[in-house]
Each structure stands twice: as structure tokens, then as C-alpha cells.
Amino acid sequence: MVYEERNIWSSLIVTVVALAVYVVVVLQQAGDGPLTEVDWPPIMLWTIVGSIGATIVVSILWGMFAGMRDPDDVGRSDQRDRDIAHMSTRVGQAFMTIAGLGVIVLCAFEADWFWIANAMFFGFAVSFTVGAIASVIAYRRGLA
Fold first, then answer.
1. 32: which of 57, 59, 97, 110 is 20 to 30 A away, CA to CA?
2. Tens digit of pLDDT for each residue in 52-101?
3. In sequence order, what are the residues at sequence separation of 6 or more whose Cβ sits closer than 8 angstroms to the Cβ of residue 92?
4. Are 10 and 61 in contact (CB under 8 A)?
5. Contact (CB, 8 A) for 18 and 47
6. HEC profile for the chain?
7. How far apart are CA 101 and CA 7, in angstroms?
8. How far apart are CA 28 and CA 49, in angstroms?
9. 14 to each of 19, 65, 118, how far by Cα in Å?
């Protein structure tokens, strides 16, 4: 597995876990009450900061273990990696556009801040996740 693919996998795994943790914590905080009453900003910020930190740690540890196995291949990147990165960025941006439109609609209907922020938060997450999955598929099957 090349350096870029390994980093994508690290980010993808951490993102899925972080989203699950965020949803569980928010639902626990809400209990039987409305979701809009949850003090969501600190939960969201800790999820974002924690997932960035966890991604860095997982990438470093995974890179260290990969470097022990194949020291010549660590950190190597080529044109294929760049092409896959460009493709996954385009795929992810399509979903970011959809999320942005959703946020505009929520603002137009004067939705609660909770819904607006979470639409954007999950829009970023879905955008990244779909782009990362596209990258993994491209690494496994090649660019068509």
C-alpha cells in the first residue's frame, strides 16, 4: 500500500469513528428532549479537533510500521497518486456543493442553528468520505 493510500485509509477510518461518536454523544445529551436544546458546539469542535489529531497519530503509526516492512517505499508518490487525488477532490466537491445548497435552504427557512451547523458538518464529512472511497476504489481498480 502506497503512502497516499495509507493516509486516505487512516483518515477514512478515523472520520467514520468520529462521526459515530459525535452522533452518539449528541443523542445521549438530548435524551428525551429536542436535539436543538443540546449544547452541540463544544461536542462538534472536540470531534473535529480529536479526529484531526487521531488521523495524524494513526497515519504516523501506520507509516512507522509500513516503514519497518518496506523502508524504500515510505513516502513515495507518483503521477498516479496525483491523478487519484485530483479525481477524489472533484468527487468530494460535488457533495460539498449539495451540502452548501442544503445549508442555504435551511437558512432561507430560518432553521435552528443546530440544523444549519450539522448540515454543514455532515456535508464536510460526507464529501470527504465519498472522495476517500473514490480514491480507495481508484487505488484498487485503477482510474478508468
1. 110
2. 999 999 999 998 888 788 776 666 778 888 899 999 999 999 999 999 99
3. 127, 128, 130, 131, 132, 134
4. no
5. yes
6. CCHHHHHHHHHHHHHHHHHHHHHHHHHHHHCCCCHHHCCHHHHHHHHHHHHHHHHHHHHHHHHHHHHHHCCCCCCCCCHHHHHHHHHHHHHHHHHHHHHHHHHHHHHHCCCCHHHHHHHHHHHHHHHHHHHHHHHHHHHHHCCC
7. 29
8. 20
9. 9, 18, 18
Question: For the chain, what are the domain ranges?
Answer: 3-141
C-alpha cell at 17: 469513528
Residue 34 identity (one-letter amino acid): P
pLDDT digits (tens, 9 = 90+) for 29-45: 999 999 999 999 999 99
Q: Where is pLDDT greater, at 39 or 3?
A: 39
CB contact burial 46-59 (16+ within 10 A = b; e otherwise): ebeeebeebbeebb
What is the C-alpha separation between 57 and 10, in angstroms, rounded? Answer: 9
